[in-house]
Write a structure and sequence with these properties.
Layout: H1 15-21, E1 30-33, E2 45-48, E3 70-73, E4 86-92, H2 101-111, E5 112-120, H3 122-127, E6 135-140, E7 143-148, H4 160-165, H5 168-177, E8 183-189, E9 193-196, H6 207-223, H7 232-241, H8 246-258, H9 262-267, H10 272-305
Length: 308
């Protein structure tokens, strides 16, 4: 069986509710893998591979609370803990980042008696995606299936993310009410079944290709009208990895301008044409957001008028 209990959707957005759903007992020792920027409040130990760059967290820094948690820097594929040293392991949106999910799965089952895993579904990855994700993940007949990502640029241009980000209603639907639709969620006890098909092409996640991935992501989310703060980190990463790539530099400077750092962007080489694009684009984004906000309000008034 894939999970010991079916409880979809698991409320991972609310740690108190998640603790209740997972039936965490006061005596149980809990490990949170990869939760450095937002560790579950009931975890005793928080393990994260990256305490500095935040490359897998969109640049978000770690949330350090040494009173509530012990922190360990380590890799899920080689956990620095003894066998069954934890009662419960929580692993939220980590496995898609690993180069070898087989090692990661086996390590979790080695160090803990039971656990909870959450990962994006295959279709979510194709429509939304992230530059540092390495696997398309699905579930079938009680088994988690891992298929390596073979493309550099998202086949559907990450179109789904800005649609969600720009809508409070969709945020609530996707990240709370129906979280089990875009994500695979499951509990396990002792072991869970999985299958890895093929090997990760690590070259897709090294300097040149990784820069392309970050650049494409930053360009796509801006293209679909996302607020600049969602793509700024990725534009910066593309420029940092390949500083001599002109289009990467200009996109990063456009992002800086969009984010209000106009003078800095100009001083660092933002050309006249990109500057005008940034000015016009900033205005259009604001107008577009306002128009859609008013349009949605009109539709709500229409529903109220018809008694829906």
């Amino acid at each position: 069986m894939l999970s010991v209990r079916q409880f979809p959707p698991y409320p991972t957005y609310d740690h108190h509710q998640l603790k209740t759903a997972l039936q965490i007992q006061p005596h149980e020792r809990v490990l949170d893998i990869g939760g450095g920027h937002n560790p579950v409040t009931f975890a005793h130990v928080v393990l994260d591979i990256d305490f500095n760059t935040g490359i897998h967290r969109d640049g978000t820094s770690l949330s350090i609370d040494k009173i509530q948690h012990d922190y360990v820097q380590g890799d899920v594929m080689d956990l620095p803990f003894a066998d069954k040293s934890f009662d419960v392991v929580i692993c939220l949106h980590v496995l898609e980042h690993t180069s070898d999910p087989q090692k990661a799965c086996e390590e979790m089952m080695r160090v803990a008696k039971r656990g909870y895993v959450e990962v994006p579904r295959k279709w979510t990855e194709l429509y939304a995606g992230h530059p540092t994700h390495r696997w398309l993940i699905d579930d079938c007949n009680g088994k988690i299936l891992f298929e390596p990502i073979t493309y550099t640029v998202s086949p559907f241009m990450n179109f789904a993310l800005p649609a969600v980000w720009n809508s409070k209603e969709l945020v609530q639907q996707a990240y709370e009410i129906h979280l089990n639709v875009p994500c695979i969620q499951f509990e396990w006890q002792d072991r869970f079944a999985y299958e890895v098909t093929g090997q990760c092409n690590n070259q897709l996640f090294e300097n040149t290709e990784l820069a392309k991935r970050h650049y494409a992501f930053a360009r796509h989310v801006l293209y679909w009208g996302a607020s600049p703060n969602y793509g700024l980190f990725h534009a910066e990463q593309a420029h940092r990895l390949l500083p001599n790539q002109k289009e990467y530099e200009q996109l990063y400077l456009i992002y800086l301008a969009f984010s209000g750092q106009w003078l800095y962007a100009v001083r660092n080489g933002l050309g006249i044409k990109p500057f005008l694009i940034a000015v016009i684009g900033k205005v259009l984004l604001l107008v577009n957001r306002s128009v859609f906000t008013w349009f949605r309000r009109l539709l709500k008034h229409m529903d109220e008028f018809h008694g829906r």
